[in-house]
Amino acid sequence: MGIGGSIFLIAVGAILAFAVEAELGWLSVSTVGWVLMLAGLVGLILTMWFWQSRRRAVVTTAAPAQRAVPVQDDRVVEEYREVRRPGTGV
Fold first, then answer.
1. Angstrom distance (rounded) from CA 19 to CA 81
2. What per-residue confidence (pLDDT) applies to 43?
3. Taking the CA atoms of the chain, what radius of gyration do you get in angstroms?
4. Which of 45, 47, 51, 58 is the most core-located residue (most Cβ within 10 A)?
5. What is the mean pLDDT of the chain?
6. CB 20 within 8 A of CB 33
């Protein structure tokens, strides 16, 4: 519903509940106003709750990648690799 819609419902409900003196047969305008104010208040509370939960920042750190070390006969085998750029002549 949003904050704007909730405030609108509260305002219209307050106008109907406190400023309008009318009875439309089986429908009480004052009761409709109170219901609208209640719906606006519930909408406002829910909107604020969802906005609060959405704004929480989640910070994660990536675990460093572990390098697999080859083992042969209970000895660690070191691997050496030399990379040369083409055209350097070294």
1. 85
2. 93
3. 34
4. 47
5. 80
6. yes
